[in-house]
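User: Could you walk me through two proteins back to back? I'd like the raw sequence and the structure tokens for each, with a short line separating them so I can tell where one ends and the next begins.

Assistant: Of course. Protein one, sequence then structure:
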Amino acid sequence: MVADMDKLYKMRDYANQLSQGIDPTSGISFPDDSIMNIRKIKLHNKEVCKLIDSIIIAASRRTSAEARKIPFFMLAEAKESFQYFEEHPVSISMLCNRINECAMNGMSKVRPMVITRGLTNLGYLEEIFRDEEERFKVPTERGSMIGISKERRKNQYGNEYTVNLYDLQAQKFVITNIEEILNAAVEKKMLDGLL
């Protein structure tokens, strides 16, 4: 069963990349004039993703509680109906809590650390060092352009810390690109493990 699920995840990943006009074997975007960039082909691959998602969901209902959890993904309908924090920018923790409300039974939860790792690997955040022990992530120029800002705060003990805040535009960016962000986090972690 696990081997079959691995095949389904791989098939879903391929269909998802093809639906975005990306060659899944190389990660390179197809040229604009390529047959693989025709809108109808991309839409069919999105439908294949939905079909595979439903197979994965059905299979997950048949597995035991000890079985491996399904990696997090969001259906297009969940992205469209997502409830954003519109009044004020929020931390990645608050955004992840809201994202996890969309997780289906048997699906792994999204952790803030994974999202920030993915955004860092994609160039929207960078890690800076204040001294040898204190390091934190801050938005790059690219991150600021999508609506990520940083703010200094004090905790209840008077210690200062920096928090990244995601305005409505940044929240929409994360939701729209969640698969790409999660993939970037995992790919980098796997590469680090090989080195």
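----
Protein two, same layout:
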Amino acid sequence: MTNNTYFPSMEADQVIWLSHYAVKIPINGPLCNIAAVEITATLLDVQFYIWILQHWYPSTQLDAKEATAYKLLELGGSGYVVIDYPKPTVFVTTPVAVKPGIQKRLFSQINRIKASLSYNDAIGQDLGIIGTPDTSSHLVPDFTLTAELGVGISRARIDYNKYGHDGIMIHL
């Protein structure tokens, strides 16, 4: 995933950012040489991903929980009444599905906008594509070590954030 400071990491914030971008790209895109057909495709991408975040994914998660509860009830429950299994969510309307890679296409478009000769800070602010730099001081990288237990094998997992440092060194 591309690291930038303008695109939110929290999904609820992504919906807000994407909704704002969808309103502003038809205005600012043509100024930065983004073709109308690409703007239309971007709007379809954004609409589809917002639908995934707000409707499809939460419904699918809820369906999975209900299916698990029903499975466990049928296996270990008791009673004299037959309980019908939960039905999956059916969406009355759905947006047009798009090919995978929404974020890559979006970030590529933003990079081309920023490289446009017509681009300026006012356009960047209006689109929400000017991030705020990380001003916190990170003198050393941050490490997290966890043990992962498996069947017949265990392993150590090391996660780290370099915070802009050139690299890390691990001695065993």
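Residues 83 and 171 are 58 Å apart (CA to CA).

Let me know if you want the two compared in more detail.
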